[in-house]
Amino acid sequence: MAGFDHPFRAGAPAMTPPPPSDSDQRRPSQYEVVVQGIQEMIVSGEIASGDRLPVESILATRFAVSRSSLREGVRALVAMGILETRQGSGTTVTSLDPGLLLKPLEFWAGIQAGTSSRDLHNVRQALEVEAAAVAALRRTDDDIERLKAVLAEAEPAIQALDHEGAMAADLEFHLSLARISRNPVLVALLEALSRPTLRMRLWQSIHLGGRIAITHQEHLAILNAVVAGDPRGAHAAMQTHLAQVAVVLRDTPDSR
Questions:
Q1: Residue 83, beta-bridge partner list
Q2: Is 117 exposed, middle or buried (0-12, 13-18, 19+ CB in 10 A)?
């Protein structure tokens, strides 16, 4: 990897790998020192989104690592979505958007099956019932129109027994509710936890023909509570809806 071609911000102390404590099983590897060191630079505000990293030679000296280990650490941070490398622009800090940084969680969630998949749904359930209550308190007229539009788009798919289309509208309804919270971390978490369950819910919608229409009615109940500005009602309606989904997931054969 080429040098990072950014002037080093003066005054930052040299960093050496921390000595292991009695409880440590091993010393951190050199690339782990790089990952931790760059994380500390971001947390401290020394570098921020859009900033280029200092040049390789200075970072290698600061972290007391070889250049090859430095590059390995940088590659790891690129894979995590924390850094990005572009030709002619050097290596910079990304936007650090939660949706980007939580992509590994979405991957992990997507390979779960059986009990683990249902455990993920339980986490999603805890988040979404609160998100629905918050939506009832914070919704604007535009938010309400968006929710109504999503459910209106679902109706033709339901009538045509277009299961994929109905499930896509289902996901968009839940994420639109979460977006009303104006909390990007909540939205990113629900995106990561919701998408993997679509595979299983698509199966159950096909095999349990009436479920697709029941889900739509449950969504309408949630919408009505949100429109009424009733957080308790929205909380209860979402809880009822996701409890029913949990029952179906419990009876759905494991599949990958």
A1: 93
A2: buried
- What is this structure's pTM? 0.65
In the numeric block, the tokens 């359930």 are attached to 125
pLDDT of residue 8: 41
Q: Which helix (H) or strand (E) holds 122?
A: helix 115-138
The tens digit of pLDDT for each residue in 111-136 reads 665 556 677 778 888 999 999 999 99
Exposure of 88 by Cβ count < 10 A (0-12 exposed, 13-18 middle, 19+ buried)?
A: exposed
Alpha carbon distance 34, 130 (integer Å)? 38
Instruction: Indicate the residue type of 26.
Output: R
Task: Find the CATH number of the domain harbouring 38.
Answer: 1.10.10.10
The pLDDT tens digits for 147-166 are 999 999 999 998 988 888 88
Its domain, for residue 23, covers 1-96
Residue 78, amino acid:
V
Cα distance between residue 34 and residue 61, in whole Å: 11
Final residue in a domain of this structure, among 96, 126, 158? 96
Residues 81 and 114 in one domain: no
